[in-house]
Amino acid sequence: MTDRIREFLEARRRAGRDVGPCLVVDLEVVRDNYTSFAKALPDTRVFYAVKANPAPEVLSLLASLGSCFDTASVVEIEQAMAAGATPDRISFGNTIKKERDIARAYALGVRLFAVDCEAEVEKIARAAPGSKVFCRILCDGTGAEWPLSRKFGCTPDMAPRVLEHAHRLGLSAYGVSFHVGSQQGNPNMWDGALKSASSIFRDLAERGIQLQMVNLGGGFPTRYLKNVPAVKAYGQAIFRALSKHFGNRIPETIIEPGRGMVGNAGVIEAEVVLVSKKSQEDEVRWVYLDIGKFNGLAETTDEMIRYPIRTAADGSATAPCVIAGPSCDSVDVLYEKEPYLLPISLEIGSKVLIEGTGAYTTTYSSVGFNGFPPLESFVI
Q: Could you tell me the keywords of this UniProt record (predicted)?
């Protein structure tokens, strides 16, 4: 947690405005993260994944720094443009799009679209003639804490047919994309995907179609409970893999960081609502917070993302706890398989800080389930 966030939360408490959970994002951390990506992969364009945190202040900062934007909907396209991005800096990266949304994006000036099947190609050919398309392929997501397999992408051997179909329909068969899984801890996981991409490039070249771009996707991690490699290590591993599989003819490349751009910039302050046990003999306490899966912590599903939790009593005696949210839904349990060790002195009304929560929190809490309001957010 940065000093700026700490000072903001202290001022909020003094003013008596700490009546519910809130996320605080420090823009200086976002700025530093963008600089790290730009330095680690200097010949690669950064397309920030808007879905990670679409706060206008975050988007405006990144637009001013020269970032491009990966968007999943027309609303996200409009948000990026409102922040100062021109259409040529926007990719419609969702492979599942309504034809009328493709048409709207095209009317706004967007010309770069993701596909993973021939039917999607045909929609783009009708609604966005002449646009560039890149085909997403399936790849191994081993090592990722939040896998992104099956739903998006086609097998590498199907991609040439999809791209050739685009070419025959008057679109620009532009490139290949993949995603090695969110919170990917192994920088070498890009190697296998780039091997597949280079094979697709050669196959299309034999068909007289010259691809130009590889979208390296996201997957760049932020630090939670475990240390992760620095962005520089990812840049070095990716460049080695590009050189290995493409030789001296390295294509244009883009990356789509989301979590790695904003995750460590945010901290959620929450409050303990209840501390209890399920039996007199139970050694494990249940700690209920005023935030849960339906208020912004959806990524605790299956305990895939384990956030660092800090308290004012850190350093004192601890005991194992199950951590749960406040809603009347039995799945709103954050951590039970592997209980957290929290201070024994933790009590009703105690504040806790949940770190590394700048990504995928406010965007997962847009509906007031059970009447609990969406997660309040501040950007400083």
A: Lyase, Pyridoxal phosphate
